[in-house]
Amino acid sequence: MDDVDRFAPVDGLAVPHGPLYAVSGVDRGDDLASWSPDEALPELTGRGRTPLLLAEGIHWALQVPQVVARNHCFMTVGSRLRRPDGRLDARTPAIWVSNGTGRDGRERRGAPKVGWCWAGNRHTWLGFASAAARHGTPA
Fold it and tell me: For 110-123, how does the pLDDT look when each residue is reduced to its tens digit (9 = 90+)?
């Protein structure tokens, strides 16, 4: 994902201003495994949940490494890339455990990975990470 820094919050997703904020009630979204990102995003918001951004998912995985486990990983559908024509790119960021194949290389087998999946595809081992709320820092 050489363009990872261009992924931004999806339209309608409120993110606190400032350099620091907290998320609470974070869930990996295992119950939505086998859903596509296009299906999961409206389901999460309909439940009153806030889909995690890629940066939030990475911070969560760094603080609680066991949330990234083989066959139990997650997508961060709060982040998407908007193309120059205004349409969303078809990729959705995800965090999973590498099998050490392809571009990953054997030496990375079992390593956490940041990558992407197609927004219309389903995966039995990827949930959709979300939070109950975001809390900004006091001004």
Answer: 778 898 899 999 99
C-alpha pair distances (Å), 114 with each of 1, 2, 38, 86, 139: 8, 11, 19, 24, 33
Residue indicated by tokens 């995966």: 123
Asked whether residue 4 is assigned to any structural domain, the reply reads no
Tens digit of pLDDT for each residue in 32-68? 999 999 999 999 999 999 999 999 999 999 999 999 9
- Domain annotation covers residue 96: yes
- Domain containing 60 equals 24-82+90-132
Is 51 in contact with 130 (CB distance < 8 Å)?
yes
